[in-house]
Amino acid sequence: MSLPSLPLFHRIAGQPVVVLGHGEAAEAKRRLVLRAGGKVIEDLAEGIDVGARLAFIAHDDARTCEGDAIRARGAGLLVNVVDRPTLCDFTTPSIIDRAPVLIAVGTGGASAGLAKALRLRLERLLPQGLGALAESLYAARDAMRARWPTGSERRRALDCALEEGGALDPLRGADAADVAAWLAGGADGAAGRFRITLRSTDPDDLTLREARLLGQADVVVTGPTVPSAVLARVRADAARLAAGGVEPEGAIVVVIDGP
């Protein structure tokens, strides 16, 4: 049974990473580490001595895997044992690389095949220039701060630009010229108070507009009957209020009524 995971992007450029084992599984982990700029260390004791923080273990023998996993974890390393999710502190997702944009698809170790199938579907949707759009937005940070002084203003303007059909729609292949044009005349993005009345406890029953509002909300107002599966669609840093709470002005406030 897979366990819940916290998805993180771990920077290993220039850092030692232990990779133990032989064969294709171990080679795949070595390639993964090298692609991210890490230094592969093939001896556990050496890895511990040089301060490695991660260990990939891919022995054919199950007992050898378990022994090395115990030793590595005892030395403070986070451990991934290939095809043994119960021995893993972390799992490796299927990755879509549009550097600096990385999209990771994981199943908590339940099915690497499913993760790969989803990645291949998404690969066809995402333009190769997606990374260039990210770099252009990074370069435009100072100009964005000048145009929209507060974080909430910038977020609403960017949400408006990046949504489907927006000035910077990432699936349309927006580029640096589009970013410059948006900064010169882009919309500020709308604030306001919106109400969603759920038709069921299934988040798949949300309309596209409702799902977008949940993803853009600064504040959500909910009651005890709103299911956690729906609340999971809300931005993690959005404020939660009970009914009757003081709602801030100039924000996107979404009131959710239970089914």
Task: Give a nutshell description of this structure.
It contains 10 helices and 10 strands. It has 259 residues and is of the alpha/beta class.
Shape: globular
Strand runs, count: 10
Query: Per DSSP, what share of the residues sits in E-state strands of 2 or more residues?
Result: 15-25%
Distance between the termini: 31 Å
CATH homologous superfamily heading of the largest domain: NAD(P)-binding Rossmann-like Domain
What is the CATH fold-level name of the largest domain? Answer: Rossmann fold
Radius of gyration: 22 Å
In CATH, the architecture of the largest domain is 3-Layer(aba) Sandwich
Q: Given the structure, what is the number of helices?
A: 10
Structural class: alpha/beta
CATH class of the largest domain: Alpha Beta
Task: Give the helix level as a range of percent.
Answer: 25-40%
What are the key terms here?
alpha/beta, Cobalt-precorrin-4 Transmethylase, domain 1, 3 domains, four-stranded parallel beta sheet, 10 helices, 10 strands
